## 1
Amino acid sequence: MEIYEKLRVLFWRVGFYGALTEGGVASLYSGLVDAFVKLGHKTIFASSGPMILPKETEFYLIEYSKLLRNFPEVLTFPYNKTSLKKILKIVETNQPHFFYLHHHDFHYGGAKLKERTGLPFILHFDSIEYWVKKNWGKLYFGNLLKWCEQIEVAQADAIITISEVLKKQACEFYNIPPHKVHSVPNGVDINRFNPDIDGNEIRQKYGLENKFVVGYSGTFNQYHGVDLIAKASKYIVNEIPNSVVFFIGDGALREKVEEILKADGIRNKVVITGLVPYSDIPKYLAACDVMVSPITHKHNDEFFGTPIKHYEYKAMGKPIIASNIGTLKDIFVHQVNSFVIPPDSVEAIIEAVKHIYNNPELSRMIAQNARQDAIQKHSWEVNARKIIQIYQQLID
Amino acid sequence: MKFVLFLLSGNAQKIADANKLNFEEIQIIKLDEKELSKPTKIVSLIKQFKGFKVYFGTIDNRFQRFQTFIKIYLLLSCSSGIIIDELGQQNKFNLTRLILQELPLLLVEVVYSIVLIIYYHIKIYLLKWKYTRN
């Protein structure tokens, strides 16, 4: 049975940092909601904080307690109860067909909402939080975290992972039947990110006119490989005439990046923008001639992520230099839609940038193919249709 | 007067503009939020900027955790300072308010947090048993 009726979809965002309108989770939600609206469905959004959403979306704010702000994680425990009370009222008022929840650490409210209402529950799972906290952050109350994840994955009717690698890892870690898990990689708004956007304003602002701009965008953290680009910068600016390395973003490794650039005596030849509003990112990307994403993964398993920025680069029709690890092998094909390099290699970054600079024809070809890929495979509308298909399977 | 901005989140330029500070005059130190759990490091960092006017910058103060701890660090380093954000909101260090209001509230939070941790360990364990037993 194919769904022709207008669906009412409830999106539920529970993260404390969901209070902020920038970042990957915000992009995911706003991209998906926008796509559902474009497809003619009604969207209802319950959120822990403000969100930028289409005007057609019914928005409800469910805030965290203001008292618990000085200890990590504790504030999320009671939010399960307080948010459930409010979301039940929202369900009663709007009568959605199903609800879509981005998994957040220490949250088990999805299971409770499903139990109380019988609504189909689609859980978006972009990482095993227990793994993330243990390996990339700080793990407090490990058992509680695991139990909450076990509750949510057990009760979800369908689980969406952002990659096949994560699907495999999650199924093994939490003993989830594979038929319940669907791999739907992240996506991009192909209209907002497109090759016709003019980057001149940004080029003027940062003095990049008539230069070959090597771009990096994203959080300054270990796994994005920003320090590798910093190390490569000296060779790039010295060996490629009139070139500049353009760092768009900020983060924990900012100081380290600054130190590398200063030690190499090239701080004045490199631009670091600091954090940029998400709405401005397309203009910043438009100002770049090539984008570099040397993702690195120093753990004994495969890299499971699909950073949204990769789809944005593709949609912008930019030549991309990316490392060939984990799920990225499915997104990037060497000399077809990107220039693929081995991970953790500064030399490979330098050589790849030089190769792209010296081969404008190749650069143009991979950029065009990347854009085509974005249109055909990675738009949020493609993802929204997949979610509707999953819902259809559930009700069938 | 010299200024230092410990940037926890957000854009330094936006924070400076929203709080009517001259961006060119500010020394910016990027600080990861995780670092706030290291009192010795933060206190010695603040002490390095003796004589500076100290700011902690965030995207939005309403969603910035650990603000009482930031003020305790300011107290321990014998400095005063302000937590400011991109919206122009300010949370100023005030010794009287810290002692009479914020520290007692922190104490309440400690006790409440301990109760919550115990309660939710039991509750979530039972939920896990209930929802995953099949």
## 2
Amino acid sequence: MSIPLSWYLILAAALFCIGLFGVLSRKNAIAILLGIELMLNGVNINLVAFWRYLDPVRIAGQVFAVIVFAVAAAEVAVGLALIISVYRRSNTVVADEIDLMKW
Amino acid sequence: MSVEQIIFVLTSLLILGSAFMVVTTRKLVQAALWLVSALFGVTILYAMLQANFLAVVQVVVYIGAIAVLFIFAVMLTRKELRDQGSQTRSNWWIAASLGVLVLAGLVSLIIGQPAFNRTAEVIPAGVDTLRNLGTALVSPDAYVLPFEVASVLLLAALVGAVFIASRKGEEK
């Protein structure tokens, strides 16, 4: 293991920022969810790298990553169901045009 | 550079290139396929970090379930896909500069921290991380509560997704 910890952290930061750019810049609601997936993966890389480099015997980092997996799966399922439901009613997936609840 | 470092650099190029294509490509089906490629790169990283269980879960859950779900959703909303025309908002440069700013801040924070230059020590012999993970997830003095809460969350998401996406509510 001759790789410094900071390499993993910088890679995770770059992945997170690319995901952030995707979330903020895309029009399509599904593409926004894709960006969120990238951000979650960046966070998971951080968690696992800290687990391996700082405390490999106790397992807290991996448990946290498993919970993040579960939350990501739930988030995608509900998010895509919402998008499909909105698409059926108002025939659009563009986030700007979904302004039903805008005051 | 050692072999591991070369593998790491190649993997990170794969991940970052795929991630960049995810956020910039026009066609959403292609974006979802690039996401699969990025997730596969993350799997390689987990294997390099000796988190074997997470590497398998990444393939099964992320690539096998979440990415396929995305492709289904893209197909179901096909009419509105509008492959021609801009896929990004007009003020995308604000998002880009915000991303670059956050990245610069994080990188300067990481580089300024000498503790992060450490390399990993070998996992002591006789420590089975997979067994530790399994017992930690179900033992009452470790993480059984978050584990059970996660299962309730998944059940709630399952029921909620079926309810939201079903057609019944519209007929009223």
## 3
Amino acid sequence: MYNREKKISLLLTFAIIFLSFPLLVFATPNSEHMNLLRKVDYLVNFTEHDLSAEYTIQRRDPGGAVSTTVATMFRRDRTDQFLILILEPLSDRGKGYLKQGDNLWLYDPVSRSFTFTSARERFQNSSARNSDFNRSSYSEDYTVVSARSERLGTFNCTVLDLQAVNTRVSFPRVRLWVCENNLVRQIQDFSLSGQLMRTTAIPTYQRVGDKWLPVTMVILDHLVFQNIGGRREYERTTITIRDPSLQTLPNSVYTKEYLERVNERRR
Amino acid sequence: MTIMYLALRNLFMRRKRYALMAIAILLGFSLITVLSSMAFGTLETIKTKAARYFSGHIAVIGFDGPDFAISNPDEIIEKLKKARFPLKAIAKRSVYYDGGARIFFSGNSISQRRAIGIDFEAERELFKSLSFLEGSYDSMLGDNGRGGILISRVAAEILGARVGDDVIFYMPTKEGQHNTAIMIVRGIFNETSIFGYTSYMRIDDLNMLHNKKEDAVTDIALHIKEGVNFERLAERIRVTLGKSFTVSPRINTNQDFSNISASHPTIETLGVIPVDAQLSEIRDVLNAFLIGTYFILAIFIVIVMIGILNTYRVLVHERTREIGTMRAMGMQKSQVKLLFLIEAAALSLISSFFGFLLGVISLNVIVKFVDLSALFFAGLFTENGKLSFFIDPKMVLYNTIFMLFAVLLAAWGPATKASNLPPVQALGKGI
């Protein structure tokens, strides 16, 4: 009787180990992929230095109308701060975005007032969101729900399906194409219900110190399009980043006073 | 009685002399009837539209921190029912107020000032007057309405959408994340004004988009019986609810509403808001219009008064011998004065009556034949491009009294002069 019970418990133990093996195998890639996400973040975040660069944001409506915004961006990833100063068009010159931690303000030089804005809002009515200028934080904000390999043009990529682990992020679901050198080549952003909202392609990067910064990013808005000549043409925003610098910037750059002062000088 | 008879007889016999004055009073009265009835009708049209948009004639809205929420709507509804207020219907709503909602179709998009989740069964009565270009309100009733949406004419035109089309409805969740749902257009309602930048869907569909519990409620819409003063009733409701729940101070304007909302109450606070408060700016414009119409009327009446004054002076002069005869036959001074005043009063009342009739006929003609749908701004105060009017009995009474007073005032001087004529002198001076 005792032997029989012993045999059953032994069998059960083996069964449990056998059944849980696939789970263990499945769990391993997840942690690998989380490591990959951390590498992705590491390569494009400038935690050691300040970053400044000139951003040209060109929005092309489906059908052809083009509007261009030129802005200077100052970014300090270690304290989660940025300041964007609009230089063109003339009508918006002096406008500024200031991010300090979770707070994001928009400065209007005409009314000389700051208003709270949200990371999910469109940047200057383009397909870019204010959150696109934040430091990369995929490994903090998302978990990998599935992964596969895929070839994207000339790049061999790992495609990671991510799901948000907090409600801070604008897009609850994201799909990333990470190529072999751990740089993201394509991003698809989905709504909570799974609707594809944007596709961002990053064909080229530039090396800045020991980190990487995109040279161009092309964002397609999947909700705004026109059918032209039998083809679906989406609203397209191209962001070009020039003259990156890692020069240390004074703390006063990341303040409301700075935006006010810059506009005082202009007057 | 004899004086009354004499006055009416004089009025009839000298009708040609009085005709010009009668026409002036008649036109003045019909003008003011048309203008004030149109202003009241416009206000009623706006209020009906606003009641659909702003959660009933009186809205009970829950302010909870930065959000809108009512955690115990059934309890509130029970209290309101028990209090036996003059309500036609009570309905729960879930409203997204932040203006970040957007509808996408075929690459086009339109933003929505608010997205409204309603209980279609409970609000059927209020929406009866809403006309549809395509589809219907009834298609949202029951389970058929799940995943359905009613959009306005202005939205349908911009999107190029028709009934049966799948549109993408975008709305941020309560946490601020992007969310979308594919919804079927079940109806296109005929609305081009500011009240057209909204869409109606089921409460659970809206809550799903906003990532809230499916039966979450932000507003309770109260539809009030006709003839009830919304502001006074709102105050009574506020006091009643205040006995069991935390309520905000009285809300009289949009600014009051914004102030309470911006104060982010730390405990759930109910605001009781009459539709007039939500329309305070529009109401101010209409009041200015009414003041304008009364200014026009005042000028008109001054002209009529001068006319009456002059006519009576001539009349008194013409009738001097008649006055002398009446005085010689024993009529008192006061009776002579009364005779002239009754004539004037009768003239005013009869002309006002016909002026009122002419006004009502004009209103019906305007409503039937004037179509303002081509004017882009007319959508706010018209239903399907047609104006509407509302004849307020109180307003008619005030206008009549006003006109009567003005005519009597003009006639007073000549009547006094006539009564003061000595009989001998009057008999001698007569024409």
